Amino acid sequence: MEQDWRSAPLSEKRKAMLIYATKLTHTPSQMTSSDVDQLRAVEFTDRDVLDIAEVTAYYAYANRIADGLGVPSETWIDD
Length: 79
Hints:
By secondary structure, the chain is mostly helical. It is 59% helix and 0% strand. Helix 1 packs antiparallel against helix 2 and helix 1 (12-26) crosses helix 3. The longest helix has 23 residues, at 46-68. The protein is globular. It starts with 11 loop residues before the first helix and ends in an 11-residue tail after the last helix. The model has no long low-confidence stretch (mean pLDDT 93).
């Protein structure tokens, strides 16, 4: 899963969440209402979508703060 979650045996709901989080992480300016609609289509509520967006955004924020301060990566994280 860590190497290739797209081919992992995950539910469509989990895959939709990961597709959304990946897009929000890598290309946030390309997010549209259809991205939210895709989450709704697999039965995420509006509150769920907000939680997914907030957690994704928080990790991006925290990582940028750590990177900006020169905090070294944990030893268990592969480069």
